[in-house]
Design goal:
Largest sheet: 4 strands, mixed
Number of domains: 1
Strand content: 15-25%
Shape: globular
Structural class: alpha+beta
Radius of gyration: 13 Å
CATH topology: 2,3-Dihydroxybiphenyl 1,2-Dioxygenase, domain 1
Order of helices and strands: HEHEEE
Length: 95
């Protein structure tokens, strides 16, 4: 899975840290608080192949996370699914 870094504003820093560590192998740095801004458009994680997209998508759905779309082939050549994290941010899981 590949993602260089991400910065997002959140209402629940610990909850979001746990979510990204559990499902995407993220590692957090020192915590930063900004009480004025929230938001993110989307982020994409490349997991390697279609089977891994399917497997991670199934795990997330089983654990109660909302599926937006997929898994499917997109018009621009990605095999992907889109889910929402605990605060409604869109995550693309791509092969």
């Amino acid at each position: 899975m590949i993602l260089e870094h991400i910065a997002l504003y959140t209402n629940d820093l610990e909850g979001m840290r746990k979510f990204y560590e559990k499902y995407f192998g993220a590692k957090s740095n020192s915590m930063y608080h900004n009480l004025k801004a929230l938001g993110l458009t989307h982020m994409a994680f490349r997991v390697g192949n279609k089977e891994k997209v399917d497997e991670l998508t199934e795990d997330l759905i089983k654990d109660g996370f909302l599926l937006k779309s997929g898994p499917r082939m997109t018009g621009d050549g990605y095999y992907e699914s889109c889910i929402f994290d605990p605060e409604g941010n869109e995550i693309e899981i791509v092969a």
